[in-house]
Structure prediction request, 122 residues.
Amino acid sequence: MVRIAGRELPTNKRVDIALNYIYGIGPWRSRQILKELKVDFSTRVKDLLVGEIAAIREYIERNYVVESDLRRFELLNIKRLIEINSYKGKRHKMLLPVRGQRTRTNARTRRGVKRIIDLKGV
Prediction:
């Protein structure tokens, strides 16, 4: 298997699809990388040459923040928002939607499972 940015890529997939397995690289960015390095999109990972793999690995490490570094960066940004006591930080702290979504209904993903209060035992 090919390891790029600490992530093993599936060998039977096309290169542009396989690069999406790296956190921080989506479809658009993977195609942009391959265009820059002049690698054919339809090439399978197992058919890549050693030089192409090295070029892709070096290009990603040099130009993008990916995988654990990106996760750490995002986590530190959220912690900073909580520390400075901003509105977004408060919403993160209370585990509520951050970007202005309504919470009276339709916030189950963020708020968790609905708890039904049993009033019979009171």
